[in-house]
Amino acid sequence: MRYHLLTIVFKIYQLIKNSFVLILLLFILRGNSEFWLLELGRYAVIIYIPLRILYIIVAWFVEKYEWQDQTFHIYKGVFVRNTRTIPFSRIQNMTRNTTLFHKLFGVTSLTFETSASGEDESIYFPVLSKERANELIELVQLDKRVEQATEEQSDDSQSVTGKFSTQSKRITYFKPVRKDLWKASFTSLSFLAIFPIAYGLYEYVQPFLSDIRILDSFQVILDSVWLFVIVVIVILIVSISFGIARTFLRYGKYEISADNNYIYIDRGVLEESYFSINKKRVQGLEIEQNFLKRLFGLAEVKLISSANPNQEDGSINVNSLYPFLPIQEAYALIEKLLPQYKLTAKLERLPLRSLWVKLLRPSWLWITATILLAIFKPNFLGIAWWVLVIMLLVLTIIQRVLDYIHTRYAISEDQAQWWHGGLTSRMFITKRKNMIEMTYSQSILQKIFQVASIQVKNRSILPRVETINDIPVNDARKSMAWYLMRSKDVNIKNG
Amino acid sequence: MAEIKLEYNLSPSYPKIKIITDTIGNIITLIVLGILFYLDYSFNWPAWVFWVLLVILVITIVGFIWSFIQPKLEYNNWSYQYNHEYLQLKFGVIKKQWVTIPMTKIQAVSTTQGPVMKRYNVRSIKVQTMGSEHIIPLLEEDVALRLREIIADFARLQEVDDE
């Protein structure tokens, strides 16, 4: 089956969008320059872009996709033909993204992510009609539902009704309310984003302004205190409203729902996206709270999965459930979405001796910074270098004391859960069967104080490494023994 | 609390072989440094180059002396054991580490042998998982080959829900 005809338009649009800055620079801003690199660049662009467009058009005629027996076959490439076969069962999650371009034409795009890395990692349909997108999503999800149903009852008609019942059971668990969004606007600090944007604009406009005496007008502003205050206030208002608008656009329309097997996230006002992941594919969970979010009682919940966290447009991390959840709601949400995770376990605190270990451990960062500062003695905002050294030291100590206070852990039954971290604190929770490795380690300092560290690895594109430091030796050894009982939780098959 | 030691040790020739290979490496480093000092002297390189070379020289010499003590300590601290479910490794002189890897998560196992190792009939084993890579250095050849087979055999099994 060929890709949607609009794929050509979309790819050309993207090509132009991506090379817009380059073209602007080469032909307009520096249009008169005879610097050889720019000359060469102009020729390269003139040759490359038409060739690329030709390639896109030819590729549309040649590249195809099809599916049969629950497997995708993808044919790619014009000169080097490349065929990929991807069984539905290897698909980890799916994202449907409707950008403004897609909205304009009433179409959408779809990405299926697999756990493999490299070339094979995802199947991307840049343009699909909405019906076709739904059809493909149904197809892949249906496969799993049938699989699920046949596991329980190997009856064909049963599995079909099973599909409908699971579908109707999709329940919405979270929708942000206005109050959360206001809080989010401030904690995200997104209003600061105006500075890089303004700076970028200034960079663009600067060449045209060379005649205008910018410095003079600055001087006028600085001369009058009142004018200066007004300008600052205007900038503040603009940037804050900008930040609020940005947050509302990004996180305003947001819905987290789930049925028996899948978690769904629908989001976006201008650009809509839909994301779904099989619950079985979730390797663990993470709650992250930075300093500002803690002040506002918010937290971010992330799913740890083997899917690639970097989407092509990278605007929103697909693994994040929602970055501004009230903390209690975050717990409740996790328990509803993934009932197998129990967040109510009693968490142990660290003994006092762990605090000494944390404070006595040499801070290589601080030592390096001190040496560098002592050598170069920089004049930073008129502060003497040794003051900077002391400030860094205080910051390091605060960070460590906070880490001591925040660290709590529970490693029992079939799951491990712990909080740790200084200014930004994080909770990590996973199941024993999802840990692919555990390491116990003890430095000399830790040995003196009879504490140790435990490190676990989880499966992901880049293996996920989580460490808890300075827990009592007894507990660390118990954890190792606990991990050796792992076979209780897993079923082995002969592969 | 007493140190726990796992079932098996590395090849007893570990310290000897390690000292030989380290010494070869260190001598090469010293020769290179000597050439650099000579070039520095004859081409009048900037003054800081001399100081950098001097620091490297001091570090190398300290390392050279340490390389005669370290292998014995490493050998004493290395142990491993395995059963049909787990491979466990314990090592580290200053920072002690104890790694547990489920056999089902092992993806590849291989042996390697360098020229010095060949002379002493030893091999090292490399185990790769989805997340990392571990090396058991210097085992007697027959032990290494048998262990490779055993691990490969146990690792063939898979857990049901990773596809």
Task: Report a brief summary of the structure.
Chain A is an alpha+beta fold. Chain A has helices spanning 6-29, 36-62, 100-105, 130-152, 156-168, 178-187, 194-205, 214-223, 225-251, 291-296, 327-337, 352-360, 364-376, 385-406, 444-448, 473-483; strands spanning 64-68, 71-76, 82-87, 91-98, 107-114, 122-129, 171-174, 254-258, 262-267, 272-278, 282-289, 298-305, 320-326, 348-349, 408-412, 415-420, 425-431, 435-442, 451-458, 464-472, 492-494. Chain B folds into 2 domains: 14-76; 80-155, PH-domain like (Roll), CATH 2.30.29.30.
Characterization of the model:
The complex is a heterodimer of chains A (495) and B (163). With 495 residues, chain A is an alpha+beta fold. In chain A, 46% of the residues lie in helices and 27% in strands. Among the domains of chain A are: 1-62; 179-251; 342-488, PH-domain like, CATH 2.30.29. Chain A has helices spanning 6-29, 36-62, 100-105, 130-152, 156-168, 178-187, 194-205, 214-223, 225-251, 291-296, 327-337, 352-360, 364-376, 385-406, 444-448, 473-483; strands spanning 64-68, 71-76, 82-87, 91-98, 107-114, 122-129, 171-174, 254-258, 262-267, 272-278, 282-289, 298-305, 320-326, 348-349, 408-412, 415-420, 425-431, 435-442, 451-458, 464-472, 492-494. In chain A, a hairpin with a 7-residue loop joins strand 5 and strand 6 (122-129). Chain B folds into 2 domains: 14-76; 80-155, PH-domain like (Roll). In chain B, helix 1 (14-43) runs antiparallel to helix 2 (47-77). Chain B is elongated and about 65 Å long. Chain A binds chain B through residues 89-90, 280, 433, 436-444, 447, 450, 457-459, 463-465, 473, 480, 483-484, 486-487, 490-495, and chain B through 1, 85-86, 92, 94-102, 104-105, 129-132, 156-163. Strand 18 (435-442) of chain A pairs antiparallel with strand 3 of chain B, so a sheet runs across the interface.
